[in-house]
Amino acid sequence: MKMSKKTKVVLYVILTLIAVYFLFPFVYMFFSTFKSETEAVAYPPSFLPDIWNWQNYVDAWNAQPFGTFLKNSVLVTVGSAVGSMVSAALVAYGFARFQFRGKNILFMLLLSTMMIPWDVTMIPQYMEFNAFGWLNTLKPLIVPSWFGSAYYIFLMRQFLMGVPKDFEEAARIDGANAFQIFYKIYVPIMKPSLILVGVLNMLAAWNDYLGPLIFLQERSKYTLALGLASFKGVYSQEIVPMLCITVIMIVPPILIFLFAQRYIIEGTGGAIK
Amino acid sequence: MKKFKWKTVTPYLFILPWIIGFLVFTLGPLIFSLCISFFDWPVVGERTFVGLGNYIEMFTSDKQVLKSLTISIKYAAIFVPLNICIALFLAMLISQPLKGIKVYRTIFYIPAVVSGVATSVIWSWVLNSDYGILNYLLSLIGIEGPNWLVDPAWAILAVVIVSAFGVGTMMLVFYTNIKGISAELYEAAALDGAGPVRQFFSITLPIITPTLLFNLITSIISSFQQVTLVMLLTGGGPMKSTYFYGLMTYNNAFRHHKLGYASANAWVMFIIILCLTALVFKSSSMWVFYENEVNSGTKKKKRRKK
Amino acid sequence: MKKRMKRLAAVGLVAAMTGSMLLGCGGGKDSGDDKTSDGKVKIRFATWDDASVLDDQQACVDKFNESQDKIEVVLEGWGSDFDTKMTASMGAGDAPDVMYMWDYPTYSESLEPLDEYINKEGEEYKNNFFEALWPYNSIDDKIYGVPVSVVTSCMYYNKDLFDQAGVAYPTDDWTWADVAKASEEIQSKLDSVNGFTLPIGTLPYTLEMYLWSNGTAFVDENGKLDGNINSDKSVEVFKTFQDMEKDGVLYASEESGQTEMLGGKTAMYVDGTWPIKQFEEEGLNYGIVQIPKFEGTEHSISVINTSGIAISKDSKHKEEAWEFLKYWTGEEMNKHRIETELPALKSVVESEALREDPNCAPFYTALDNCAGYTPSSFIAEGWTEVDADIQLAFESIINPSSLADPKEALDEVVASHE
Questions:
Q1: pLDDT grade for A167, boundaries at 50, 70 and 90
Q2: Contacts of residue B130 in chain C, CB cutoff 8 Å?
Q3: Contact: B257, C201; criterion CB under 8 Å
Q4: Whose CB has fewer CB within 10 Å in chain B, the N or C terminal residue?
């Protein structure tokens, strides 16, 4: 598709305006990470720091055992994302491609699990994980993903519903069974949406705060998000180190996103014709 | 005989992980919370059975329930359509074949990457009526900014503005779907003389209706469950103008320590969301076009030609 | 068929393997264990402090562990969401053995009464703590916690701003009228500086000290609101603040006041002892005096922000927990924490000459003045909901976009609860 020069200019202007709007608070935050606590809250607010104090980052990182937190975060993020991808693909395929008894009821049940707020199921869940002996381990943050979460299953299912059935008909004639069809035909087609599930789940797990807060106890088990929140106490808070860690924490998801983009686009060829 | 049996079992095998997960991780806590909604259940101390007492209290003596419900509905009514439109618009923008679009794509995604705690800290600075950089910038161009987080009339708008920054996830879902549309479809349409607007409405929009449904439902759910943002940004204030239903539930559980009552709150909200979702689903057969309807009996006439 | 079975078996196997691998990872011992691997008694200890002191707390815990051959204390830093986490663990019956505590009215039923333990230590032990602290750690005359530190409130002022405006520094005798006058003078000389800042989010718990200072309280000793919170004296308190705001000499802030003070945006505000460390680190030129008093009263009265530690009733190792509690509230630890917290022990205040330290003395004076007052939350039943309504009433009185009539707003609180 060719675009006229005028269209292009208009698009760039719109894109840039939105980018400025989206970036502004974070650029402001980024610059604030170099300021002293006093300068960060001064008025009129200064945009650029007086002195670029890179030491703030070193101090923030060393203020807590962030190396350990990072390790835990990576474990949780990767562990749950892989689990979600596998389980969402399987379950969504089951819901999207088959007709079976009780399907609608089960699907509504699946959706309804998203609708109960966590605050009331949290305490029974705590008791359950306590009974399993899972408290103060990373298991409550990883294992449930392997059994599918409604959000990602629903998302996958919507993508699968958009794939014409003609694909599998040919394979079925060849005598392939349901799992072969799933594995050989659908998994490749689902790649972009699977990657999307992976990206979204990684981000959610990376930033998850309440789960780790409730289920972890000792600092050796903390994740980055929990360490970040520890800069806030009941009676006090340190803003600058908090912002430094925030900036550091943004980097990995952005890298993953940059990396994943390619696969989301690549998938085009195999998808809907 | 055996073969037939396998065929009936196969779908269940696929959804088995979720069924196990549901039985092990979800069902127990769900039943537990339903049960305690019939109790007066403080965090510590005596627990007494009150039957429907909690539910009755919600709709008779507790005036906050309806107020908070209204606020949440108001928020959802603004948030859901607004965010879906923004997300779709952005997704269209970042799908354009332009140079450097990758950079913009990443920038649009950044706000969704920042954790809730940091987002609220930054925004409470930015929006601070006296010292905030937003009103400072506005003052430079001669506008006296409102007291964003102090004036009840503006606070809910402030929450909407901030939550719009989390649009990246929804945008990405749309984007993945749009990227999956074959270029041939557009080429064919272009040959027929369809402009970009018509292409959007006749090709893009119908194809992405499944993800539109997804985004619609998940954003309805999340808007009713919005807690973290308001808790950190406004604390429900000023003067309870942003005291969302979800925050009320949270406070009943964690501030007033009435777990039974909070569970009743949650179940009422559950019923409301469930009805809304069911409604959306019912209507979806009229506007969501699945490339393949599994129920061959209800095949749509509307199936697109290829 | 066979092939199909094989495929299925393979899928199943892979799933089972990944599952068990995950279950295996994460590892570590079960948290349910009350013994560590080397057979010591494990004591879980939860604190609410932010990261800046956690390392130091860990070092103190380590030191205790080294001195013990039968007890190992494990520190859990719960940070700002202490209350959420406490609700979850208490609700699930999995409270830590030892924990920081302020919300005794809610949790006392799950806490171990400590009177016996304290009595065993002798009169002298108990008397070494400032008397005013005990009521804040007791419910119905039973002690549930031992004070860790003293947190009273005083008024902070920015010396530089006072100097620039040529206004004399505040003194302990200042009334609110003096504050208003100074505030006006400062604001007339300095741009974009507020004279006095009062956070809109001031909690009722803190607000009550202004009522005490004016000779009233939210409730009487029977927990009755009517005639107390809406008494003339109480209304006068709220009206004083509102009038100051209307006159432009009190700034109602959406922040806590601490950031405004640090950023040089306010000349005066009231706070506890927490900001001192930050003010010192950032080199702020500040002074501390008593909270301003009301006309015709002798002195103001501060509230104490309880900071105690308690033992869970369900703890399996109460003796060991008490051992640690004693260590944590003992002289050595009180001295160790001097940089960040004011000692709760008379002997330490004396030996360290804290009454001569300008950063500490005002808070001990406030402590002397406030003996005998108990917050309404410790007296009335089901206080949290009244508390939420008082907060709303205060907000509506002080929020510049509403400025509700104090008498009406307070009457409404009474009406909806009695």
A1: low
A2: 251, 253, 265
A3: no
A4: N
